[in-house]
Amino acid sequence: MKRARIAAVGLAATVAAVALVATLTPMGANAANPGAAAVSCTGTAWAKDATYNGGAVVIYGGHTWTAKWWSYGDVPGATGGADVWVDGGACSGTPSGDPTASPTPTSSATADPTTEPTDPATTDPTGDPTTTDPTDDPTTDPTTDPADDPTTAPAGGSKKVVGYYTDWSTYQRDFQVKDLDTSGAADKLTHIVYAFGNVTGGKCAIGDAYADYQKTFPAGESVSGEADTFDQPVAGNINQLRELKKKHPQLKIIWSFGGWTWSGGFGQAASDPDAFAKSCHDLVEDSRWADVFDGIDIDWEYPNATGLSADTSGFDAYRKLMSSLRSSFGSDLVTSAITADGNKGGKIEAADYGGAAKYVDWFMPMTYDFYGAFDADGPTAPHSPLTDFAGAPIKGFDSETAIAKLKSLNIPSDKLLLGIGFYGRGWTGVTQAAPGGSATGPAPGTYEAGIEDYKVLKTKCPATGTVGGTAYAKCGSEWWSYDTPSTIAGKMTYAKQQSLGGSFFWDLSGDTSDAELTKAVANGLS
Predict the structure, then answer these.
(1) Pair 435, 472: CB distance under 8 Å
(2) Which sequence positions are flagged as catalytic?
(3) Are 345 and 319 contacting, i.e. CB atoms less than 8 angstroms apart?
(4) The pairing of beta strand 295-299 with beta strand 252-258
(5) How far is residue 450 CA from its own chain's centroid?
(6) Which H/E stretch holds residue 458?
(7) 524 to 159, 468, 492, 494: CA distances (angstroms)
(8) Under DSSP, is residue 317 helix (H, G, I), strand (E, B) or coil?
(9) What is the DSSP letter of 525?
(10) Which tens digits make up the pLDDT trace of 12-35?
(11) In angstroms, rounded to a whole number, what is the distance separating the alpha carbons of residues 515 and 385?
């Protein structure tokens, strides 16, 4: 949901990539024909610290190699490994390009989906950056066109505790579905959103086939304690989620599509929303995993606005797409992660979220990433403020403003979930302890500069103060902001006071081994 989020950069191995690999020369084929002339090494040199998508071509050991699926650190030709690479035969000459066939892990891929912010702070807000009056009328009448499908979403129920689990968590992060069981998180969650499926060619599509249903887990990494077999029809994360549901029958699993990287496909999808909705239903309800998923989540960043690319599908497109999805999915869950840019002229005003509300079970406004080291020199500011605060760089960049704006569109309170980030954003070269200081750039992070998991920050850089209902920390020359169990308690009090439907968080891999933050959300809503 943010730039991975939001959307898994450098990660997904698509079905097309797997099919491509199937046509490649088997390993060692050229070795069997020593008379064959070696081709020129025109690819990029393999690098141990780079990530590669399925279908990526590299040069290593004087041979050309093609990745079957996503890879990080898998040496081409190594025995006893994951068998990622297919040998295309010997080549001669010096490989071209830098030995970084793909970016090093970022929060959008193997790393953390909290990479570059996409909501509201990644781009300057349009229009007047003043706080939106909750009583303002939307720019366009949000009443749904009677021609739209009349099927409506079920009324909201008890408080939701919703956590995103990313398909790439199984790779470098080594955060497996089993960890949701052993940490105690699964006992507290009501829903898990599995991210991400792709949106391409006007259809929903598999995002990473290997992670989703091909990877086999040994007994020690399996929820059931039993090892996967090489020939079982469905392995991977999806089968592990199936096993998790068996142990925790209260859990509902929702498959999310889009995210920052793959939101560019929604424009084409919106041109024929009924066909798109049918493709999504066919995939989510595929007989191989229909028992696992309870609905669909749409993370379109952003309808009729600019994210990674500019969307020009129009004000009505989002509403019509959600209408078609509701029609296709019937009483199954239909949810959506949406912008939290509540300023006047901001992204909330760009699409008919008010009109779409009748088709969704709930919205998840991404109330985090308002500020961060994407503004390298600062000023330092909390990335997920609940409220406005003195010295805020942009007035109205806070959760309270976003929620008020969405309510002003006549969206029921119980269809709004408050967003929490299980990570922090930080700067380095900071001398001022309080917010508002200057910086020289992003602070170092495990997977990406400027980003770090809560489970790391709680000991590496403990909180030293609070501002706007969230925490910040100054340690050495670094300055970080993130939520703690204490600030989450305050945010959940706000959620209950506002009669919100609950809370969601991005993402579960950032929590501690005993699910400290997940438990804080659940306990705060109880």
Answers:
(1) yes
(2) 301
(3) no
(4) parallel
(5) 17
(6) helix 454-460
(7) 10, 18, 5, 10
(8) helix
(9) H
(10) 333 334 333 333 333 333 333 333
(11) 22
The pLDDT value given to residue 73: 56
Q: How far is CA 350 from CA 115, 138, 318, 337, 491, in A?
A: 24, 10, 10, 15, 27
Q: Which helix (H) or strand (E) holds 481?
A: strand 478-482
Question: What are the DSSP calls for 8-50, one per residue?
Answer: -TTT---HHHHHHHHTSPPTTTGGG-TTSPPEE--SEEP-TT-
| pLDDT tens profile 390-403 | 999 999 999 999 99
Mean pLDDT for 367-393 is 97
The answer to whether residues 343 and 125 touch, using CB atoms and an 8 Å cutoff, is yes
Look at residue 150 and tell me whether its pLDDT is greater than 80: no
DSSP string, 360-386: -SEEEE----SS-TTSTT-----SS-S
Could you tell me the CA-to-CA distances from 468 to 386, 391, 436, 496, 502 in Å, in that order?
A: 6, 11, 13, 18, 20
Please provide the distance, in angstroms rounded to a whole number, between the alpha carbons at the two ends of the chain: 26
Residues near 165 by Cβ (< 8 Å), separated by ≥ 6?
Answer: 177, 180, 192, 193, 194, 195, 237, 241, 507, 508, 509
User: Could you tell me if residue 210 is left (phi over 0), alpha (psi between -120 and 50 degrees) or otherwise beta?
Assistant: alpha
Residues 6+ apart with CB under 8 A from 151: 323, 326, 327, 330, 359
Residues 259 and 366 sit within 8 Å (Cβ to Cβ): no
CB 524 within 8 A of CB 486: no
DSSP string, 110-130: TS-TTSS--SSTTSPPSS--S
